[in-house]
Structures are given as structure tokens and as C-alpha cells.
Amino acid sequence: MSGIYSLRFRLAATFLAIILAVMIIISFFLYTTLEHYHINNLRESLKRTGFLASDFLVGHLRGQVNSVRLSTLAENMSRQAGARVIFTDQQGVVVGDSMRVGGLLNQALEQENVYDALEGEVSSSVGYSERLEQNVLQVAIPVEEDDSVIGAIFLSASMEDVYNTLGDIRSFLLLATLLAVAVVGGGSVLLARRITGPVEELTAAARKMAEGKLDQHIEVSSSDEIGRLADQFNLMTKRLNYYTSNLKKFAADVAHEVRTPLTTMSLLTKSLKEHEMEPEQQKEFVEDLDSELDRLIAMVNDLLELSRLEKEDVEREEVVLNRLIRSMVEENQYRFARAGLELHCELPEREYKVMAVPMQLRQVVGNLLDNALNYTPPGGAVSVSLYREENEAVTRVADTGCGIPEEDLSYIFERFFRVDRARTREGGGTGLGLAIVSEIVAQHGGRVWVESKEGAGSSFYFALPYSEEQI
Ligand code: ADP
């Protein structure tokens, strides 16, 4: 995760780019503002000197000019202003130059600024002095008498000081930028690590899960978005582990349950094949084989039913429980009578409506009735009743059968659980009937429970929420 595509790198690079851009923009504006300020300052000071001199010069330029005096004057001004000072006459010919040796005395001063000044305008520009080998600021000011220009003052100052100051400022800004980049860079690396550290941890855990190590857990150290993600991850792995172990247990249970009838069938087939038998005995063996096969088929059907229940989301409709129970009781009368059992129902006058898949509700009641029939000896009675409890409609299937030992009551709705395996097998149970009941009722937002006393009978209950219309 340390490549240039990593989140950590990109976060740190983004922070750095932002701070660098901000510092460059600030430095640029600060530098240009200060540059203007310093150059303006110098220009204003040159102009001030020039204006002072221009009033003073009027008298000196009138009539005969004295170049020696004017040059001395220029020299004095030059010392004060820190600039070269040149005076010209009306034609732009130098009549005084602060630079005595190698000066321009009596020469025409060929300068744009001077031409402007002779036109009556104050003008200035930055030029390059070959002699000083550096930039200079040049200002030219007209000397006027009665609205006519009689000469010009030309001042040229070195900009070395300005550029020295600006150089200092530039170094300072560069240092500040480097410092900001270093501080923000360090900070952003730390911050990026804080943010991406847990993400990397999550990725590593997810990778391990992909490799099949499902028992991953991450220490949650913060309550921010990443912390919540880690929390959810832990919850997910916990669930996943729970489901996988359930699935493993279920697969083992199925294998175990299937093995018994298959072994029996294999034994029966071998006996039929290898031993001479009377036709009577042979028939008995084939009947046993047939009943084992039936049991296997019933188990496979129940398993299919369970897995279908888990994936299907069937449309529900309003079901009147009273009607459903009554019709099922009527349909089962004959079967119960044949087993020597009495079957009746106690239903309220008022209709109890629930939102349900009718076929599935029929299966719930059907499974409970099958169990009552299977586990109640002849002469017993089974009753189905319906009553209301707060916002639920409760159905109770009570029998006077063998009952369930107290220690088994909490396992009764588990897949493949049977109280007395030997006894139940005789009856051909798969151990899945109540698991189906419980799954269907749970999917309808309801609950199931049982009350039973060994030898005295059992009561199975399922409660379903009323359809909204009825509440
Ligand atoms: P089975 O196909 O074995 O009936 P069930 O899931 O329907 O599977 O029931 C699980 C076990 O619960 C049964 O094997 C039986 O021991 C016990 N049982 C269920 N209903 C009753 C009942 N009405 N009376 C006594 N025992 C019952």
C-alpha cells in the first residue's frame, strides 16, 4: 500500500500541493506589492527632490547659464538624493551634471524621459545603466517659467537598495514556504497515516477473510467514519462466522441423518441379494426398504421446503385464521378418527385476520396437527383454539399425548431434533417439521413456543401480528 496510488500518498500529496499553491500565491502577491511599494517610494523621493530643484533652477536657467555653478548644485543635490542629477536647457543639452568626470556636460541628453519633461510632463521609467551595470530608476521633471518649459531636471538612482531589500524578502518568503511545506508535509503524512492505518488494517483482515480465515477482528480505536466501518466489519465477521458454523453443523446433521436410512437400506438390499428367503420374509424386507425410502424422500422434501423458505419472498395476503383452521380441522377429521383420536376446534366468533402466505400457514397448522396425531396414543384428544393477546392472534394446538421431557423443550424447534429417536423413527418423523413451523412463523413476524408435561400432553402455540386493518 505504499505506491503512488495509495490513499496515504494521495492524501499527503494533496495537502502538500494545496499548501504549496497557497504559499506561492501569497508570496507572489506579497512580493509584487512590496516591489511596487519600494519602487514607488524611490520614485516619489526622486520627484520630490526634482520639484524642489525645479523652482530653484528657474533663475539659473534664465539668460546666460553657468555650467560650473549648475554642476556644483547638481553635485550637492546628488549627494542628498543618492542619485545622479543632470540639468538640461530647453533643447535638452546638459548644462549641469553631478558627475564631474566623464559627465555629459554640453551634450544632448538623449532620453525619452527628458523629451517628455521638455514637453511639460513629469515622467519616469526603469532603465539599465551600462556604467553602473545595474537597473536604475530615472525621473525627469520640467523646469517651467510662466507656463513655458525652459529646461529639465533628470535624476537617475540606482535600484540596488530596492533589489537588496526585495532579495531579502524573497529569501524570507522562500524560507517561509519551505517551513510551511515541511510542517504541513510532516503533519499530513501523520494525518494520512492515522486515516489510512485502520483502512490498511481492514484491507488486511478482508484479505485474510478472502483466504478463508473468517475469524477476523479489528480493534476499534475511534468513533469516526472509519471506526464505524471497523465496527460494522466486526459485526459482519461475527455474523458470517455464526452462519458458517451453523451451515457446517447443518451439513453434518444432514449427512448424519441420511446415513442411518442409507445404511439400513444397504443392509436390507445385501440380505435380499445374498440370502435365500421365504417369500413372506422377502416381502417384509422390501416393505422395510420402502419405508426407509419414504423417510428419505420425506426428509429431502422437508429440506427443500426449508431452503425454499429461506430464499423466497412470497407475496402475502390477508388470511382469516378462523376459516383456515376450521377447514384444516375438517379435512383432518377422518385421519384422526382412524387413529382413534378426537379432533375439534374452539374458534371465536370474530374473524382474526393476519397478513400471510396461505399455503405456508396451512403447512404450519398441518405440521402441528401431524405431530399431535403422531405423538398421541389412541383414545386421546386434540384441540385447536384461537384467541387474542394484545396485537397478536394466538393459535394453540393441544394434545393429550406423550408430552416432551422438560430438558428437551428448548431444543424442540431445532433442525433434526427428536426426543426419542427410536420411537420417532417408527412414526417416520424427519425432525424437520417444527423447524419448518418455526421458520415460517418467524418469516411472518410471529413467534412459536411450547408447553408440555411428559405423559400429560403438549400445547404448541404460534402467535402472528394482526393485519394492520384489524388493529
Ligand atoms: P418429527 O418429524 O420427528 O415429528 P418435528 O420437528 O415435527 O419432527 O418434531 C421434533 C420432535 O419433537 C419429535 O421428534 C418429537 O419427539 C417431538 N414432538 C413434536 N411434537 C410433539 C407432540 N405433539 N407431542 C410430543 N412430542 C412432540
What is the beta-strand fraction?
15-25%
| Portion of residues within helices | 55-70%
Task: Tell me which ligands are bound.
Answer: adenosine-5'-diphosphate
Question: What Rg, in angstroms, do the CA atoms define?
Answer: 53 Å
Strand order of the main beta sheet, please?
2-1-5-4-3
Structural class: alpha+beta
Amino- and carboxy-terminal Cα gap: 58 Å
- Number of DSSP helices? 10
Backbone shape = rod-shaped
Mean pLDDT: 89
Q: Would you list the SSEs in sequence order as H and E? A: HHEEHEEEHHHEHEEHEEHHEE
Largest sheet: 5 strands, antiparallel
Any low-confidence stretches, pLDDT <50, length ≥5?
Answer: none
Instruction: Give the strand tally.
Output: 12
Question: How would you explain this protein's 3D organization?
Answer:
The chain is an alpha+beta fold. It is about 55% helix and about 20% strand. The protein contains ten helices and twelve strands. The strands form three sheets. It has a five-stranded antiparallel β-sheet with strand order 2-1-5-4-3. Strand 1 and strand 2 form a beta hairpin. Helix 4 runs parallel beside helix 5, helix 5 packs antiparallel against helix 6 and helix 6 runs parallel beside helix 10. The model has no long low-confidence stretch (mean pLDDT about 90). Bound molecules: adenosine-5'-diphosphate.
